[in-house]
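can u do me a favor
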């Protein structure tokens, strides 16, 4: 599963420092993509991204996880920072718990 965090920044006049502002978080798991956050509507799920290695045009419909990994190339102007990470899929609680049959 791929997790993408979109952030921006603004100047806090009280502290006189730049602070990160959360925009949205996107999760791509196989072909499923979910996005949430205070400004999730700023992120288009319909954009195509050119893979710099293969020069292929990649859309979410082609391969959602590959598309998600390429999102930093779509936001290179600096207004929005994009952080990509691979996360392990959480198993449902009952799956991880095993009863011992030994008596």
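np, heres the sequence
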């Amino acid at each position: 599963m791929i997790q993408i965090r979109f952030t921006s920044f603004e100047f806090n006049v009280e502290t006189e420092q730049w602070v990160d502002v959360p925009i949205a978080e996107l999760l791509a798991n196989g072909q499923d993509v979910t996005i949430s956050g205070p400004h999730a509507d700023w992120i288009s799920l319909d954009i195509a991204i050119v893979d710099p290695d293969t020069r292929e045009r990649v859309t979410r419909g082609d391969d959602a996880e590959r598309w998600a990994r390429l999102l930093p190339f779509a936001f290179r102007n600096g207004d929005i920072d994009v952080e990509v990470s691979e996360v392990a899929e959480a198993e449902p609680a009952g799956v991880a718990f095993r009863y011992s049959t030994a008596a």
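Residues 64-74 form the longest helix (11 residues). hope that helps!!
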